[in-house]
Amino acid sequence: MRINRRKNSRHGIALVLFAVSLTALFGCVALAVDLGMVASARTQCQAATDAAAMAGCRALNGDTSSNNNYANVSPNAVQAATNNYVLGKAIASNQVTVNIGRYTYQSATQAFQGQFPGPGTQNWSLVQAQVTASLSGQMAFSKIFNITPASITTTATAVHRPRDIAVVLDYSGSMRFASLVGTGPFDNPRSCNNADTNVPVWGGYSAAPAGTMYATTFTTPYSDANITATSTDGRPPMVQDFYTNSTGTAAFTSASSGYATTPAGDVPLKISKNTGATYAQTAAQIFNIASPTNSSYDNKFETKGYKAYNITTGCKRYTQGPNYYGKTFFAWPPDPINGADGTTNDWRQRYFLYPGTNTGMDDNSRLWDSSGNWRQPGASTYQINYTAILDWIKNIGPNAFPTSMRSGRIVYYTSIPSSINTASNPPANLDERFWKDYIDYCLGLIDNQDGTWQTLTDGSNGLAGYGPDFQWGTVQITPNSSLSQSNGKPFMHYGDNPLRPALHFWFGPLTMVDFLGNYNIWYNVSPSCSRYCWLPGTCHEAPLYACKLGIQAALTDIQNNHPNDYVSLIMFSSPRSSSGQNDDTRFNRVRVGLSQNYTNMTESLWYPTATVGSSSSTVTPYDSNNIEVPRASGGTCYSMGLMLAYNQFSANSTLPSFSSGQTSGDAGGNGRKGAQKIVIFETDGAPNTSASANFVTSSAYNNYYKVRYNYGAPGASDFPYNVWGYSDNSSTVVNEITSIIGNMAALDTASTPGYSTATRPFLMHCIGFGPAFDPSNPDRPANLATLNTMQTTGNVNDGMPSYKIINGNQATVISNLQQAFTKILQTGVQVSLIQ
Q1: Measured between alpha carbons, how far is 640 from 681 in angstroms, rounded to an integer?
Q2: Whole-number Å distance between alpha carbons of 781 and 14
Q3: Which one in 6, 402, 440, 791 has a CA-CA gap of 20 to 30 Å to 522?
Q4: Tell me: the pLDDT tens digits for 256-272?
Q5: pTM for this model (two decimals)
């Protein structure tokens, strides 16, 4: 049987399916394109948001007077955002939202956290920006399916990266070598280091050996001292750094420069009864006695003194020098007669007594030894008549001193006393004590306050002034017991001729400045004298003064430009190794603990620690707080400054409260985990003093060195041990230094954890400052090698570039030091995104 099959007709179905598939395909392509545009829009929007947050955060600074530049943050952020486009459409200002906050450290969690607004006691340091971009009308296809957003919003948060910075400054004695009256401290006798040529040229000074009264050549690290005249590199005279009151009235004025050739008061006598052309060395030369004997006697001179033969109009009892020399009572020969007031003109008898009596000293052999050297007071020599000397200072001739004197919040004296009570030694009255010390110094002496004396200046010793007394003519000293009475006993042997003083016996601003700052006194004399450097921190001692100005400018830069940096200010010289140590050791505590207290940091550069924060507070030279005055003195101990820096970076919770009676963190413990740790270390010399201390290990960010200072109870402090002096750049000292730096530079995950992380390494930057790094200094290579070793140990491998080596005149030094800090602190990332 035949079956007929009917064939179904499906013509055109493929076209339908193709059409349906093509529509879906177009939809997918359109969706893919639109979704790609969404992604691109989000990327573009995020870029704009990032730019806004970064620009806003960069606008923030540390200037608290302008609220950290708060007002300009939003405009800067908005401007940065509106410079961008999303899918070709410019971002409008109303699409940008800006929140300003603080990137705050939480001590409890040891972590930073963004807060809005955060503690009002902290700087603004965080900016969060949001940008919302409309996509309306931008998606041609996907809007049909309602699968794209009408807009997108992106957020970014930028912060000033926190850094903990220790600024460690060298305040050792070499920081004033360019301002020493005479070379020192290792020179005895010292030589003149003052280039001021306005000096006496009369009497014995007319024949003073070259370099005695002013210096013409200098050897590094010394230069022309700015004591009484502006130095060649522009440093003002230090005599102008003292005042007679708190309003700044100058303490000292300059006398006539004409007194260099002809002094006021008593003019040294010349030969041939003062008619000759040359100055007389002895009384015999005045009276043309070729070979004086024990009985040589000129009746007219013995009875009329300086008035005899019309030599002069009479004895004035003083001789005033030029400029800032002041006056001296030393005149040779002395006038043997009484003045109009009935008292003797003989300065030996007026100002020195037979011990235990009121009888004036008239025996040359008790004042000078047979070599013409000035003697010490004692039972067989003489007693100082302080009352007569004080009267002479105040009332005979011009008084070179103010009625009171102060500088840099140090009150040196409040009055010039009329007498000194020596019943107690030292005198209980501080004015009397000060003036006794100064008078002793001018006489070339130090009272050890135990019944003994030390000689600062005579023909052999030259620790004060311009050095030792010098010889002029034939030295001769004759005891009174040898004098003959054949023609009447002479008041002294006419041939006697002691060594002649350079600045010995001078009372005036020049010797006062040397008295206050004499480096040799603390270095060479017995510790029992308790007499140390007393210069104010505000005087122009060099190179320290220029360093302070540069550091002050650098601190201002940090404050103004780095609102989330914390700084600790640390100074070093030779530290104390015990609480009872009685010498010039100091700086066992930081000046200002890790903080943003820039006002106290600036004040600490100039003023005694006890007065910081109180402009009306003062100390005296005899106050224990005087030791902590920020002046240059002592050895160069890098280790102590670095151990203090280590403790400042620590977050150990026991450290902030260790020091009673002082701001929390004085002994350390305010370090912020997560903040990069940086030491900026300035020095003008090679390390030559070691200091060791126990290193207490616990866990990351909790270690510390046992050099904690307790301000409220100094005896309860931790003191370093093995404080010893070594040669410059001794390997023992350098190894000690690099060990401390190595502990700071170690990773915080190391077995002995340090302060470095993989992304935030500890950094050790060194600055070589002053003559020790001058190209002419033969020790420069060794000094730089030490600093470079310190840097490389501390993750800085720049090879000590030229901007870290500071030399030049005062203006150049200040500018270059500020520039060095700026470059150091601009390295790395200061502002970054955390979201």
Answers
A1: 12
A2: 91
A3: 402
A4: 999 999 999 999 999 99
A5: 0.90
